[in-house]
Amino acid sequence: MRLSRAPILMKMENGQSSKEKYLHDFTYHGKELSFTEAKNIMFQYLDSSGSVDLEKDANGIAKIRLSNPRFKNAINVKMMSDLEEITEKLSQWTDCKGAIVYGADGNFCSGGDLNMAKKINNSYYGYAMNIYIGHILDKFKRLPIITVAYIEGAGALGGGAEITTACDYRLMCNAVDTTAIGFVHSKMGIVPAWGSTARLVSIMGVRKTLDLLLESRLFSAAEAMDSGLVDGAVATMADAETWLSHKIRADVNVIRAIKRMVQCYDDSPETVRMMESRIFAPLWGGPANQAAIEKHLKHKR
Q1: Taking 50 as the threshold, does the pLDDT of residue 106 lie above it?
Q2: How far apart are CA 208 and CA 287, in angstroms?
Q3: Of 228, 182, 173, 232, nearest to 201 (Cα)?
Q4: Tens digits of residue pLDDT in 210-260
Q5: 3-state helix, strand, coil in the chain (%, to 5)
Q6: Rg (the chain; Cα; Å)
Q7: How deeply is 92 buried, as exposed, middle or buried, from its count of CB atoms within 10 A (0-12, 13-18, 19+)?
């Protein structure tokens, strides 16, 4: 006699499965936004501080500098707008083989600008921010060149760590012991956004990503290398350039073909990012997030 299996996981509640109810309770259900709509919303908070600057060299390497030194290069709308323009320029630079993303004044990026966060601290704006920044980082990730994040100084924290996942490789400066990388989002009452969770799973695997996000701690260069989060440790920017140069010795068209071929195996990154945005948005501006912002927890170790 065949026994029927009890549909525990798929039990219907008010016409919804348990899984559907969970996703409904923990995801954003507000107005859908296109990239253009999200951009227009975020541009209401565009100011003149900070920049992202592009430098090209004759060897086909671009240097992309995150510059907002007053706040350890914290990311704001102006800087993401600059990165969008730079991404378009790099897509048209046919001789480009690779790029290094780094921070001004010897620091990489301390995360999102808290002043901006206080102005847009609710789920609607959180969703808009995700659509806007996530789209730009997706485009940057898809560039047919080899990209490296060079993490030095205070390191890459929160949103700064997220930006590194849009690069093909991550290098950490080992000149001082204080340089760190940390997905400190849970301390801020939120989860990562901008497509970085899916990228982390691709980089580290599910279990290590789960541990990384739950523990919300800072990793030294040695720890980050052991975990697979970063790919190497170097002492200087010049060393980072040399490291990248060894990766891009092939013909430019071969490099671009390799990058495109590997990207064919991405698991619907835009679809994954959209679900990530829906999960993130209700936490943005929630009680835990507001309390963390008021306490200025972001820069505390």
Answers
A1: yes
A2: 28
A3: 228
A4: 999 999 999 999 999 999 999 999 999 999 999 999 999 999 999 999 998
A5: 50, 15, 35
A6: 20
A7: exposed
pLDDT, one tens digit per residue, over 11-20 is 434 555 555 5
Model confidence pLDDT, tens digit, residues 113-126: 888 888 888 899 99
C-alpha distances in angstroms, 81 versus 92, 168, 173, 199?
A: 17, 21, 27, 22
- 270 sits in which H/E element: helix 269-280
pLDDT for position 192? 92
Integer CA distances (angstroms), 175 to 152, 238, 285, in order: 8, 13, 37
Confidence (pTM):
0.85
> What is the token pair recorded at 105?
């004044």
- Are 220 and 227 in contact, with CB atoms under 8 Å apart? no
Chain Cα centroid distance, residue 117: 16
The SS3 call for residue 15 is coil
How many residues would you count in the chain? Answer: 301
Estimate to the nearest angstrom the gap between the alpha carbon of 219 and the chain centroid.
Answer: 16
Contacting residues for 214 by C-beta, under 8 A, at least 6 apart: 186
DSSP string, 61-103: EEEEEEE-GGGTT-B-HHHHHHHHHHHHHHHH-TT--EEEEEE
State the Cα angle at 227 between 145 and 219, rounded to 5°. 95
